[in-house]
Amino acid sequence: MLSPWNDGEIVDIQDEAPGTKRFYIKVPAFEKIDFKPGQFMTFDLPIHEKRNKRWRSYSIASAPNDTNVLEFVIVLLEGGLGTNYLFNQANIGTTFPMRGPQGHFTLPEIIDKEICFICTGTGIAPFRSMLLHIHRHQIPHKGLHLVFGSRLKENALYYREMAELAEKMPGFSYHVALSREKSPDWTGYKGYVHQIYESIYADHRDAYFYICGWQNMLDEASERLQNMGYQRKVNIICESYG
Fold first, then answer.
1. Most buried by CB count within 10 Å: which residue of 88, 92, 123, 228?
2. Peptide bond before 140: cis, by omega within 30 degrees of 0?
3. How far apart are CA 74 and CA 63, in angstroms?
């Protein structure tokens, strides 16, 4: 059964990277919003006469924190009606109906294997929520890897936060792949996400692979992992956008 629609109000907007912003949205109907890290909310934006053509879904980037404010990290898409509205018309104080939380792209009840989170761009949103939740509640795990891909360092979303989290969170490793970075200051990996997780799991040890991003990246990662012997739905869990 779908949850009812409730008005959400934008209470803050922050620049995260070129063409990418963080939107903080309060839902006054709730004192706090209970959700599972990895879930999403659906926005009903005033961008079309037909209601179902106004709906846009975005993963929650914040972890459950006993408040009624949710964080979303959203990239401006060329020709995208929803993101153009949010970037160019919406402001602090703007309200629109929201529904959720929804979705099954969530952590297992017991983390009994290593987890490798693989993402590009704003696909990091559900994984940030999961990692902050695991850290905040000291949830036992077998080891965590975040493999994030972007073109340039300036587009590496939550870079400083994730690097700091890796320093203080036992068993968590952060890997960044930049495909077009030319700066001599960048001494990290230059390339794509696929070579990183293939290297980490070259021994084919048991793990869960959570993948979030554009469909073509998901398809390639899923195929590569299956070629390594991992199974869809058993080891490979995907969430696509676009």
1. 123
2. no
3. 16
Listed in sequence order, the residues at least 6 apart from 148 whose beta carbon sits closer than 8 Å to its beta carbon are 119, 120, 124, 156, 157, 162, 174, 175, 176, 177, 193
Q: C-alpha angle with apex 105: 195 to 119, nearest 5 degrees?
A: 25
Q: What would the two tokens of residue 80 be?
A: 């995208």
**Which CA distances in Å does 48 have to 41, 53, 84, 122, 231?**
19, 6, 13, 24, 40
> Are the CB atoms for 55 and 42 separated by under 8 Å?
yes
Q: Are 156 and 137 in contact (CB under 8 A)?
A: no
The CATH number given to 5-102 is 2.40.30.10
pLDDT tops 90 at residue 185:
no
pLDDT tens-digit series, residues 67-78: 999 999 999 998
Please name the helix (run of DSSP H) or strand (run of DSSP E) that holds residue 12, with its range, or none.
strand 5-17
What is d(CA 41, CA 70) in angstroms, rounded to the nearest whole number?
9
1 — pLDDT class (breaks 50, 70, 90) = low
Do residues 69 and 21 make contact, with C-beta atoms less than 8 angstroms apart?
no
Of all residues in the chain, the percent with pLDDT exceeding 90 is 85
Asked if pLDDT for residue 103 goes beyond 60, the answer is: yes
CATH of domain 114-241: 3.40.50.80
Place of tokens 């998901």: 218
| Mean pLDDT within 112-129 | 96
Domain regions of the chain by residue span: 5-102, 114-241
pLDDT, mean over the chain: 94
